[in-house]
Amino acid sequence: MDPLKVLLVSSEVAPFAKTGGLADVVTALARHLAKNKHDVRVVMPFYGRLRRSEYEFESLERLADIPMRCGDKRYWFSVASAELPRSKQRVFFVRCPELYDREGIYTQDPDEHLRFGLLSRAALEICQWTQWAPDIVHANDWHTALMPLYLRTVYAWDKLFARTRTVLTIHNIGYQGVVSAEKLRDLELENERRLLYQEDLNDGRLNFLKTGILYADALTTVSKTYAREIQGEELGMGLQGLLRQRDDHLFGIVNGVDHDEWNPSKDTLIPARFSARDLRGKLQNKRELCEKFGLDFDPRAPLIGCVSRLTTQKGFELLPDILPVVLHREDVRLIVLGTGEERYENYFNWLAGAFPRKVAFKAGFDNPLAHWIEAASDMYLMPSRYEPCGLNQMYSLRYGSIPIVRRTGGLADTVRAFDSQSGEGTGFLFDDFTPEALYHAILRALGVWRDPQAWSRLVQNAMREDFSWERQIQHYIELYRRLAPPKR
Ligand code: ADP
Asked: Ligand 1 pocket by C-beta < 6 Å: which residues?
């Protein structure tokens, strides 16, 4: 069969710009599509924070100073490219300093809609300038969710896109890109009002993600359970009705683990490598991590790890009611790496102050430390309120750090409850979003920890789970093939 031409557009692509799982997923998709011999183009913004010294960016002369009208404003963009590390794949960067030379990836600035509206359009215009006709335009999250509508309106005249089909992946429905309807002008969609959600327009709003859900040929989300959950009241975040209408076009495909990146037997970011057969390195990682952060090291005391964005989604409000009790009563250690809402940072700082030999907290984003925590910890905490897929629990399984997770979204699909009788299962799950339910899950984990034989079986089960992208990518390819009209 002919290779597919896939245009992947995203606000984040690892390692260039990342705040969470989105970046990892887009990169893995690109690498594995390329490995399967498909023709992929990845497009992202050239953010001011990109470390120019670290990557070799090459300006593309043919794609320089391209004007783009955005309502009353006019921008010019150029395109640079760089190699995606560990692949031959090149990534295209949309350069528009006026929009992207800012401190962060995301901003609260009044032109946020333009930053991603321009990205979406620039990606299509790159196709036009290079006469490259994508079979599939794959948009990700709200930032690029207007692409399906753009293809039906602003770019509908161009035959280049006549056979193009669109996929929108919802990595997290909690972020929808809701802006004032006045911004339609900037987005060159003022004349397309009839195609938009009239109720929203009447309320003076435009919702990027909702528009994408309405117009994408297919929708995917990152686990089967989450695909079901977002069609319900509790987790649909207002979009459940529309998602139910589009149920036939909504697919759950769980994310994979990039084994080149997250592999305890090859990981160069951790002090000692290890495998399911030889776990000595894991203990060394734990010892060194405890020493580095001033925690009392004791091989008999389990170390619980947590690496996360510190947001409400991740369920941290369950912790204050139970952690001090657990830390008083049990001989455990806890290490948390995360950045986000101040109240959570304050809480973990307080906790580390209250239990200096047992708890360490590092505020910030630190990829090598994230690897080290996975490699050093015995248990991994993820009490999410909701979790579209979650990557850390899968990394944890691979690194023999047993997940304690809430049974929601991708956590429900990737962690199997450990049963001491049969010796089957890979982690500890709880259902109710309450401190008590989490407390009992932690106690269950500690109970099994005290039985070294059972624990060792559990670790072996966990480390042998296979969540490889090699398998998951086939589901995307099948979907693309179903969408793309056969070539004559
Ligand atoms: P989400 O996308 O909701 O943040 P995921 O579990 O899907 O959650 O993905 C999180 C990714 O971001 C993982 O690769 C994780 O290691 C990484 N990550 C999150 N916070 C940090 C941090 N403070 N430092 C380093 N890596 C982090």
From this structure: 20-21, 24, 307-309, 337-339, 365-367, 370, 389-392
User: Residue 135 — φ and ψ, nearest 5°?
Assistant: -75, -40
Contact 128, 107 (CB under 8 A): no
The answer to whether the pTM exceeds 0.85 is: yes
Substitution site in 25, 392, 397, 411 for ligand 1 pocket (most atoms within 8 Å of beta carbon): 392
Average of per-residue pLDDT across 372-383: 98
Strands (E), 60-215: 66-70, 73-83, 90-95, 136-140, 165-170, 178-180, 205-207
Which atom number of ligand 1 is nearest to the Cα of residue 18? 12
392 alpha carbon – ligand 1 mean position (Å): 7
pLDDT tens by residue, 201-243: 999 999 999 999 999 999 999 999 999 999 999 999 999 999 9
Neighbours of 320 (CB within 10 A): 12
56-91 tens-digit pLDDT:
999 999 999 999 999 999 999 999 999 998 888 999
Task: Go through the domains of the chain in sequence order and give each one's CATH number.
Answer: 5-256+470-483 (3.40.50.2000), 280-467 (3.40.50.2000)
Bridge partners of 306?
Answer: 336
CA atoms within 13 A on the CB side of 429: 17
Task: Give me 135's structure tokens.
Answer: 């079979």
Cβ atoms of 14 and 2 closer than 8 Å:
no
Q: What is the Cα Rg of the chain in Å?
A: 23
Ligand 1 centroid to residue 454 C-alpha, Å: 29
